[in-house]
């Protein structure tokens, strides 16, 4: 994927996606690949730079196609399993990758990109930590989901620091008004409601990208006590179309036990080597294809690994899969206001 803007692309945004596609197809021809819009059976990026470049190109094409709610998902840190690992490491690495993507996206499209943190505290920390990178990034700014509803501290700060003629010093809210594309990162489930409000009140019809937010993980908390209701998926999260999607999953399969003897002898279960088989894989998004649900993906992964050894319809197959192989948000298709997230 291109890492720099085609000559003249920034000056003529309407020609952007055509130029991006042309460079993508040229690179694909050099590698012997097919059109990336048709998907590919394998994807083996060698660096995070390549991942970011490919994600930016996918976003740029989607923007030119008129889409305004987009999802980008890929493993943000190679040795940390999302928020289950070191959260600070994950959060900071995700900010760094999102900043790199923002710079590339602004360069390729000629548009202004506004990077969104969940709240004012996260914003202040990130703005200080990545101050030099922000200063060196043209057409890239940073803010947070609640910037349109400033806290007492930020309001007091604006009173103290007024610009010439009594005008407020340029801050996140002013930068957001000029932005064309918003990239939202590092939200928790409870903060999704703030993102929804931001999209309705500030971003409106402009492009919003959910960047490495692990939306499938966040969806699982909806409806629980203290979290937003499931309707947030039906009316809001369902509108985000995955344009670059790599979701890694890890599973384990225990080796089958030896048959237990008939009663009245005591039932004894002895596992055979290698006792437990750990396996993992990545679900990669393809344009215009229905995404696998999580149960289907696990089955496909087991088939690829040669681990799906139980006979179809057997008791062992039922016990392994269970009665339910899909999640509530995968089943609630009739309640959704959009099918965009399923592609």
UniProtKB/TrEMBL annotation:
InterPro entries per record:
DUF1995, LPA3
Superkingdom of the source?
Eukaryota
Residue ranges for the region (Disordered) are 1-45
Give every DUF1995 domain span: 45-252
The UniProt regions of compositional bias labelled Low complexity, in chain numbering, are 1-11
Q: What's a Pfam family in this record?
A: DUF1995
In this chain, composition skew of type Basic and acidic residues spans 24-38
The UniProt entry, under PANTHER family, shows: PROTEIN LOW PSII ACCUMULATION 3, CHLOROPLASTIC, PROTEIN LPA3
User: Mind telling me what this protein is named?
Assistant: DUF1995 domain-containing protein
Q: Which organism is it from?
A: Chlorella variabilis
């Amino acid at each position: 994927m291109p890492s720099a803007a085609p000559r003249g692309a920034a000056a003529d945004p309407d020609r952007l996606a055509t130029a991006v596609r042309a460079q993508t197809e040229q690179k694909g021809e050099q590698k012997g690949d097919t059109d990336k819009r048709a998907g590919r059976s394998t994807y083996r990026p060698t660096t995070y730079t390549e991942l970011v470049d490919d994600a930016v190109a996918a976003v740029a094409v989607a923007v030119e196609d008129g889409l305004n709610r987009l999802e980008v998902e890929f493993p943000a840190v190679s040795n940390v399993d999302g928020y289950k690992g070191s959260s600070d490491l994950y959060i900071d690495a995700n900010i760094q990758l999102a900043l790199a993507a923002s710079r590339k996206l602004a360069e390729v499209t000629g548009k202004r990109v506004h990077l969104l943190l969940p709240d004012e505290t996260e914003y202040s920390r990130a703005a200080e930590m990545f101050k030099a990178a922000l200063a060196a990034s043209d057409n890239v700014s940073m803010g947070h989901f609640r910037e349109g509803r400033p806290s007492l501290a930020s309001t007091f700060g604006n009173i103290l620091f007024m610009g010439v003629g009594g005008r407020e010093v340029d801050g996140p809210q002013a930068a957001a008004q000029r932005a064309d594309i918003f990239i939202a990162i590092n939200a928790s489930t409870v903060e999704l409601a703030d993102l929804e409000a931001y999209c309705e009140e500030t971003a409106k019809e402009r492009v919003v990208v959910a960047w490495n937010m692990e939306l499938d993980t966040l969806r699982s908390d909806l409806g629980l006590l203290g979290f937003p209701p499931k309707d947030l998926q039906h009316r809001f999260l369902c509108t985000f179309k995955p344009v670059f999607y790599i979701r890694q999953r890890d599973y384990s399969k225990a080796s089958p036990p030896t048959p237990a003897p008939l009663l009245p002898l005591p039932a004894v279960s002895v596992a055979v080597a290698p006792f437990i088989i750990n396996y993992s894989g990545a679900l990669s998004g393809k344009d215009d294809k229905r995404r696998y649900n999580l149960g289907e993906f696990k089955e496909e992964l087991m088939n690829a690994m040669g681990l799906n050894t139980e006979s179809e319809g057997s008791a062992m197959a039922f016990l392994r899969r269970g009665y339910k192989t899909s999640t509530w948000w995968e089943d609630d298709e009739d309640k959704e206001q959009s099918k965009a997230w399923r592609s």
